[in-house]
Amino acid sequence: MSQDTVIHWFRQDLRLADNPALLSASKRGRVVPVFILDEDNPGKFAAGGASRWWLSHSLASLARSLGGHLSIYKGNPSDVLSDIAHRFQVSAIYWNRCYEPWRMHRDAALKIHFKTQGIDVQSHNGSLLWEPWSIRKDDGTPHRVFSSFYRKGCLKSDQPRAPLSQPEQATYIGDSGSPHACKPQELLPQNRWYEKLEPYWHIGEEGAHARLKAFLEEGLPQYKTGRNYPFSPFVSRLSPFLRNGEISPHQIWHEMLNILRNKHVDHFCSELGWREFAYHLLYHYPDLPTKNLRPMFDTFPWKDGGPRLHAWRKGETGIPMVDAGMRELWETGYMHNRVRMIAGSFLVKNLGIHWTHGERWFWDTLVDADLASNSAGWQWVAGSGSDAATYFRMFNPVLQGQKFDPDGNYVRRWIPEIASLPTEYLFNPWEAPDSVLSAAGIKLGEIYPAPMIDLKQSRDAAQAAFESLKKDHE
After folding, report:
1. What is the CATH number of the domain that holds 62?
2. Number of domains in the chain
3. What is the pLDDT of residues 88-119, one digit of tens each?
């Protein structure tokens, strides 16, 4: 093997297996594996608290897998990498591509900088099944509708490559001489609120594959129908592992191909397609996290957040299905996808609060906070995104609860103060007779909040506002 010394810069690829940049680096020479917490470039998109908690544990796991040779830094990547390159006399830097606009801009500048210094820079795709620029409509423009993107684009394009093996007989070199060095625990938020998240997750590459194995055995056989039920075990919960690259979409996709095709497998693969679609939108519309994709919503009369936004964040709106989701989020760093849509719809359409307020809260509290998926999801809920049909769609949290939590197990799990209510009134306790509330030991406004808003009136007001907006732009 060549005795060149090269850097592998870990980013959103915190794994050894199916890591194309790491594998290529290991074939070239000795590898200095590094991770850099970039605090200079991301601006408002710096990692949120829950993401930093996950990242700290994931890096500790990766460091163990590398025999303690992972070097972790805080600082500007240009300064950190230049320092390492000088001290180790490296010939090349390897990384797997990231697709957030600020990262792409930074990485392009870094490539130019290091190549002018005579250092080779190699980037690979380790995060997406299809590059976001590779799927286009027949006229060359980007897709804005998921069904055509996935069926006419992805499924008719080159199929995703097979997963790669992890490096064999690689030589890793640690670094103890940098002023930028830090330890994984230094990435943690100062407030130790995150400790309550720990029982819910097995973080790291090993944990990712354990989660996939459990899903294949327990969740996939009922996935298409069961995925919408928040108390069921039929969801994968792989999103934070994908977000941090502890498992790759290629590994998951090919595990699906090893299973006899059925409606559950096909549907789960399409959910991976939704992740690809979010990155497709973010690449082609880099303002997706901050601006309405449909400009007509720029004139929509949004209300200020204020106390109602605060109550929504705390899970104290008085609407049980919404509050259950927000409390699950605060306790575990995760929220079931259907409940995300219910809670999001309530914030944006019933309360009339701008979707970016919800986006920012999710960004800080979700362990799977992903710029593309989070932004696209909130724009979808608000109706300001790529799908023109969704701005009239509203989720009734009472009906959604009755349909997808029919026994009330989810609401009772997260709102124990109303657990003794009969299921008939669990999702709408304000409609329960006084005798039923009294028998359950509940006084609305004391034990549990009275609803902050009338669902029907707020729905009618939202639909009227949307109708007016539509007429103004015809």
Report:
1. 3.40.50.620
2. 3
3. 999 999 999 999 999 999 999 999 999 999 99
Report d(CA 337, CA 374) in Å as an integer: 11
Report the CATH number at residue 433: 1.10.579.10
Q: What is the pLDDT of residue 130?
A: 98
The sign of the dihedral angle between the CA atoms of 129, 131, 132, 135 is negative
The DSSP code sequence of 366-396 is: -TT--HHHHHHHHHHHHT-SS-GGGGG----
Q: Which amino acid is at 44?
A: K
Check residue 113 and give its pLDDT.
Answer: 98
CA distance 298 to 473: 11
Give 292-310 as a DSSP string: -SSGGGGGS-PBP-HHHHH
What is the distance between the alpha carbons of residues 45 and 360, in angstroms, rounded to a whole number?
Answer: 9
Question: Hey, CA dihedral for 265, 266, 272, 275, is it positive or negative?
Answer: negative
Q: What is the DSSP string of 207-261?
A: HHHHHHHHIIIIIGGGHHHHTT-TTSS-S---HHHHHHTSS-HHHHHHHHHTSPP
Per-position b or e across 174-195, b if 16+ CB within 10 A of its CB: ebeebebbbebeebbbeeeebe
Same domain, 254 and 217: yes
Count of Cβ atoms closer than 10 Å to residue 115 Cβ: 12
Distance between CA atoms of residues 27 and 265, nearest Å? 35
- Residue 349 and residue 228 in one domain: no
Amino acid residing at 377: G
95: alpha, beta or left, given left = phi > 0 and alpha = psi -120 to 50?
A: beta
Q: How far apart are CA 337 and CA 385, in angstroms?
A: 18
- pLDDT of amino acid 387: 79
Residue 312 lies inside a defined structural domain of this protein = yes
Q: What is the pLDDT of residue 1?
A: 45
Full strand arrangement of the beta sheet holding 92-96: 71-74, 29-37, 4-10, 92-96, 120-124
155 located within any domain: yes
| pLDDT-flagged residues of the chain (< 50) | 1
Number of other CB atoms surrounding residue 323 within 10 Å: 25
Q: What was the pLDDT predicted at 472?
A: 84
